[in-house]
Amino acid sequence: MQKEDLDVFVVGAGVIGLSTAIRALEAGFSVTIFAEIFPGDEKSIKYASCWAGADHISVAATGAFMHELEQETFAVFKGLLKEDPDVPVMVRPHQRYVQDDQPDNWMNTDHLRNFYPDFSTLDASELPQIAVRGAAFSTLCIDVPRYLPYLMNRFLASGGRAFRTTLPSLSALLSNTDRPTFEVFPPNSSRSPPTLRPTAVINCTGLGALSIGDVLDTRVYPTRGEVLIIRAPWVQRDSGFRWTDGHISYMIPRQTGDVILGGTYQPDDWHPKSRPETVKLIKEHGIQAFPELLHPSKRETLNIEDLDVIEECVGLRPTRKGGVRLEIESLAVGERTIPIVHNYGHGGAGYQSSWGSATRAVQLLKSVLKTDSVY
Ligand SMILES: Cc1cc2nc3c(=O)[nH]c(=O)nc-3n(C[C@H](O)[C@H](O)[C@H](O)COP(=O)(O)OP(=O)(O)OC[C@H]3O[C@@H](n4cnc5c(N)ncnc54)[C@H](O)[C@@H]3O)c2cc1C
């Protein structure tokens, strides 16, 4: 049997599902994505990927395994940029500052120095008045509203198939008798209904892993992120600021001239709408840390009313105690047992670890199917 005869189902069309599906296609499998939400849909609290900034900033505390995934992903993004200048990813200067000198994970200079080749610490003369320490390096900013359709189109153009469905469980994908409803995606494509005889399933359901039957991973929880989208086409750098009270302000530019201004990290907070008091806090901290968010003519007065706010956003980062789950399990339905590869729980680092995770998931798939030796 050839690898292209092996039907692999990927559940989830966020940045993790799409990247994984592309890697599986590239490895020679026949791949179908099943998901409730796709790129281009109205933004949803059930779809973390549409709310992200997103930049690539590795954090020391996430551990060696995550760092490997992030390093691989950094290299893949750099390669993509070389191959295709239109890919919606930008190299941007990043500066980060802290308001006090307490040692912390966010400004772990040893870790950042190892990670980002042009890392340097900033002199006192280069710091804003309200900061005591700072560092600079180049990083990547991913233009999320363009990058998700880019991944989707790349998947479809390479022969992938996709169906919209809401699955009560992964085993619902294995039974032709009790079929959920499937809608072809994109809706105008001429595809026949899927045959539910997968060789393996890759589970990229993010926060869905908490509630989807036969996964029910209680280690999964949301880390709520409230951010604002600001119109400020003159902002070209990526930056972060840690305040003494622990609040982190950050801004991430997009190619369109919009800038993400964050934000919050609130574990186990499911509230899906913005809170007026948080919006005010993000604005107040934001203009003090980054006065350039304001139009040049408005920077003297630092008035939050002068920020050109386009949207108030809330997203739930799919976080997992113990970190990302890249693991094989098997699923028995009737007389059939098929392998499941899990790839979820990336928290606030799904973009920056996406390609590394996708490659690992496909390696697990190949190892369990023994495709390199048997087929
Ligand atoms: C405010 C904010 C800022 C962020 N900033 C960054 C950043 O700067 N850098 C970075 O790397 N990351 C960042 N992240 C994190 C990043 O967005 C996530 O880690 C990433 O999007 C997770 O992707 P995912 O594909 O696992 O999940 P999701 O994007 O949530 O996708 C899950 C998919 O599974 C599908 N699904 C789930 N359950 C079911 C079901 N039962 N049936 C069918 N389909 C189902 C959904 O429909 C969806 O398609 C940020 C996140 C937020 C919220």
Automatic annotation (TrEMBL):
Residues binding FAD, per UniProt: T205
GO MF entry, a single one: D-amino-acid oxidase activity
UniProt keyword annotation of Electron transport present: no
Coiled coil, from the record: none
Family the UniProt entry places it in: Belongs to the DAMOX/DASOX family.
Annotated Gene Ontology cellular component terms: cytoplasm
Annotated SUPFAM superfamilies: FAD-linked reductases, C-terminal domain (SSF54373), Nucleotide-binding domain (SSF51971)
Gene3D superfamilies: D-Amino Acid Oxidase, subunit A, domain 2, NAD(P)-binding Rossmann-like Domain
Matching Pfam families: DAO
Cofactor: FAD
Protein origin, superkingdom: Eukaryota
Domain FAD dependent oxidoreductase: 7-362
Any one GO biological process: D-amino acid catabolic process
Keyword presence, Iron-sulfur: no
Residues given in the record as D-dopa binding sites: R317, G348
Keywords of this entry: FAD, Flavoprotein, Oxidoreductase
Protein name: FAD dependent oxidoreductase domain-containing protein
